[in-house]
Specification:
By secondary structure, the chain is an alpha+beta fold. Helix content is about 30%, strand content about 50%. Strand 3 (about 55-60) and strand 4 form a beta hairpin.
């Protein structure tokens, strides 16, 4: 094996160990690994409240629809009397009668 191949093999092994350690650290604090990656997280309380974490802004806001930009696409929330109760940089609380939560399929 050439010297450069050995170096690459060592770097790949090191990256693998770091990835495993990162996953172990996330499990140790009981957080899913996707939380660290900026993936959106939606928590529903019955059909009355939704908490959305890791969003990137509001695209549409109406009484029956709220669309949010996320790292993996557009999150669409449909319902009745929808209202944003609180909004922070990366988290949001939505009140109203929530009928559906889905990601829009790009066309």
């Amino acid at each position: 094996m050439k010297r450069s191949e050995k170096t690459i093999a060592k770097q790949n092994a090191r990256r693998g160990r770091l990835a495993r350690l990162g996953g172990e650290a996330m499990r140790a604090v009981r957080l899913p690994e996707t939380t660290a990656g900026g993936f959106p997280r939606v928590t529903l309380l019955a059909d009355l409240h939704a908490e959305i974490e890791n969003h990137m802004g509001v695209l549409e806001l109406a009484e029956r629809i709220i669309r949010l930009k996320t790292a993996i696409g557009i999150l669409r929330i449909e319902g009745e009397r929808l209202d944003i109760r609180s909004a922070e940089r990366e988290s949001m609380l939505i009140d109203g009668k929530i009928v559906s939560v889905c990601f829009e399929i790009p066309q």
